[in-house]
Amino acid sequence: MSEPVAISDVLDTFTDLWSPRIAGSVNDYDVRLAKVRGEHIWHTHDHTDEFFLVVEGELRIGLREPAGERTVTLSKGSLFTVPRGVEHKPSAPSGAVIMLIEPTGTLTVGDRHEEVPAHVDVTTGHPLA
Amino acid sequence: MSEPVAISDVLDTFTDLWSPRIAGSVNDYDVRLAKVRGEHIWHTHDHTDEFFLVVEGELRIGLREPAGERTVTLSKGSLFTVPRGVEHKPSAPSGAVIMLIEPTGTLTVGDRHEEVPAHVDVTTGHPLA
After folding, report:
1. pLDDT digit of tens for each residue in chain A (129 aa)?
2. Cyclic nucleotide-binding domain: which residues (chains A, B) (predicted)?
3. Least CB-CB distance to A1: which of B24, B81, B84?
């Protein structure tokens, strides 16, 4: 990454949903971009927080916390961090583009998850084309 | 950060230039937002990369690399990481809003820097008002 990367240029390189591209890095963290629509799955990262920034559209994140289950809604230009150990389920009924920041090697489905349907890519992120 | 944070709401809370607000975190990293205009200073982070995302406007980053000095220009929606150890100088002649991601405690002027003028805030980032 010796030159700046335009998010729009990255988004032009793929159409896959729930399949993050690694757009950059900072130390041992990845900056990933994903196109999403519909529902991801309930999953938990036991050892890391997960940061979300909504670039386009609206993202919902279901959270199963000690106090109960709730859903937060992130509009375009909003950010939120899911704390490590909190079971969560992203969804985007109308579609969204999101930026994620998490340690390199973090799996999209976490350390524990429900059954993975065909539309969810189990990956640590794909390099840019 | 138990609720999503809208970048626009954070920007409404301050007018200071070159004075980052801590809008979120992920593990031991801060997500900071800063309003910038004019020139920052040449400085170096010896132990960490520094990630920039341009939210509004245009940001330039001067870089003093082994091969020589150059300037990269980031338009709105572009990202770039300054590698650890690389002397750099952000500037924004027409003003910009930027998001930074770096380890909690990272100083705005790095570990080594030129003389700090009055318009540059020496800080590890300010909590949200």
Report:
1. 699 999 999 999 999 999 999 999 999 999 999 999 999 999 999 999 999 999 999 999 999 999 999 999 999 999 999 999 999 999 999 999 999 999 999 999 999 999 999 999 999 999 998
2. 38-80
3. B81
Interface test with A, best of B10, B27, B45 (most A CBs within 10 A): B27
Query: What's the CA gap between B55 and B38, in Å, rounded?
Result: 17
Helix or strand or coil: residue B10? helix
Which residues have a Cβ under 8 Å from the Cβ of B77 and sit 6 or more positions away? A6, A7, A8, A55, B54
Inter-chain touch B24–A75, beta carbons under 8 Å: no
Return all residues near A66 (Cβ < 8 A) that are at least 6 apart: none
Interchain proximity A4–B79, CB inside 8 Å: yes
Q: Which residues of B are less than 8 Å from A55 in CB distance?
A: 77
**Min Cα separation A5/chain B (Å):** 5
As to burial, measured by CB atoms within 10 angstroms (0-12 exposed, 13-18 middle, 19+ buried), residue B128 is middle
Virtual CA dihedral for B95, A102, A40, B98, nearest 10 degrees?
0
Predicted pLDDT of residue B1: 59
What are the structural domains of chain B?
Answer: 7-118 (2.60.120.10)
Q: What is the ipTM of this complex?
A: 0.95
| Strand B43-44 relative to strand A59-65, pairing | unpaired
pLDDT-derived band at B67 (thresholds 50, 70, 90) equals very high
Identify whether the C-beta of residue B119 lies closer than 8 Å to the C-beta of residue B88.
Answer: no
